[in-house]
Structures
1.
Amino acid sequence: MSSGLENELKQMIIDTLALEDLSVANFDSQEALFGGGYELDSIDALELGLAIRKKYDVRIDAETDNVEEIFASVAHLAAFIHSRLEANQLGAKRV
């Protein structure tokens, strides 16, 4: 997966959730975002979902998407966003 996208997401998480103790360099892409060392909660997930929608125009739908898996780690989140961006590009090319 693109480390560029992962680093963007790490910075977004740090900025959106005001995690001053973290930096992109010491933010592990594989570590669990929820129930792990980052101590994020459901409100944080909502804030991140909104930030992702605003920046990437990618919507995470709790009704149809596996939210637990998507938010499992930065790596999972990056893979989900990457796949949605690719799908959007393919759809745009067909029109």
2.
Amino acid sequence: MAVGPRVSEWRKLPMSLTELCIDTTLRCGQAFRWRKVEDEWHCTLQGRILSLKQDATHLHYRTTWPKQTTAPGGPAAPLTPPPSSLPSPAPDQTSTPEDDEDDDDTLSLLTTYFNLPISLSALYTTWSAADPNFARRAPSFTGIRILNQPAWEALVAFICSSNNNISRISSMVTNLCLHYGPYIGTTTTTTSGSEPLHDFPSPSALAGDGVEQKLRALGFGYRARYIAQTAQIINAKGEGWLDGLRNPLSPPLGGGGGGGGGGRLPNPQPTYKAAHEALLSLPGVGPKVADCVCLMGLGWAEAVPVDTHVWQIATRDYKFGGGGKGSKTKTLNRAIHDAVGDHFRGIWGEYAGWAQSVLFTANLKSFARQAEGGGEGDGDGEEGKVEEEVKDVKEVKEVVVEVVKKEMTTGDKPTALRSTMRVTKRKVVIKTEVDEETDDMPIADVKVAATRTSKRRRVRA
């Protein structure tokens, strides 16, 4: 006999906001499938819908198990995508306190997913003692934990992050789940109605024929090929290849490694550097994406992903490379990426990637108001880094700005810079903006060409 989705009671776990703040952790560019509706966060994970909410003293959680054709506890029916018009669901069944087995499993899942055994307040104390800049900014950004996500999901999500922003990455990941992931259930609210929720697709689901073409049609651009090719490679390597790159001290989320079949582990005693190099062999994976996967999917806490925001932090707050104007126009090549990571590892130690995530979040425009209470920040992020270069009109007649990277329907990379020019009585101001929360963009030189004024037509001050 078919039964409807089974919904547990709300449970609560003692949790201070200094140890975990879900409103910050779940929207700072780590995970892209969590949705906040009213005061609750929802996401599918390990075959269930997790719902979270938080107050000053507790993390509250609830589990919704998908519709089954057998009694709870028996094997679930195959999960399939819903039709375009969702059928009326069977009546929900609220679990009772006797449903301890499932509740214990969810608590274990949350403990692993949020890395709860690690004392975050102790880490903040250590970083603040070692770094005055961290001590100045951290009070406004407590409770930011690095998530322990499935390695396969982290890999695909951060391939999507290349030259992209958080909102668009979230949209891409949602489309991946809707079109290729198993249907788990729906959320229903008074404000947004019903929304179908799918789990993350497996490598085999994204390794089939026609995936690249469909993803291009869905707006993935050049990333479509990377995702399809990487899925084929991971699927062929077999079960456990990705988790064979995992930090042995960091348990995987729910077991499994993101692959089909029975592959061998690539290294019986993996290291961070070995994991990073192995990931670089995959299509669409550069140093920054590899470090994101190492940090948030494989448990290497020392990994420091370096994108434009982290480069800005390094040059502005830590005077990396001299901190001068010239340091802002370098391309983020592999050598600079590694040097910045080593610099921060020297300051913050073995959990450098965790500390970096706090300052990264503080540097996002979407958290600018929150940053007001935690030291000075220039609100970079969703609306981009803004630089102004001023030229005297006497010296400049014509300004030519080369703008790099324009995304076309053919799948080229997106525009990374926007430039405008305004002329005042004595000045020409050239404003160059990095597009909103764009990751992996080379910090390219913006070339400004000036020609001498003609003798026949001089510019008067």
3.
Amino acid sequence: MSSFLWWVGQIIATLMGGFFLLFGIHLLILAYDLDDPFWFIMTFFASSFMILISAALLAGFIVKMIAAIRGSGENIQ
């Protein structure tokens, strides 16, 4: 049961990371339509930060799941 919950948690976290990655990319594209330079800079850096954090978390979740599938992560909790 613990292993099943771990997989469910990893899949949910991966889906959330993917959602925020796509949302950050969408926000970055929308930043280029802004007319005010201040709002452009703020939106550009905020979306870049969102992309960076979500991509790093997404990569970590995927590496954990691959390690668990290969058997090297049998004690992952």
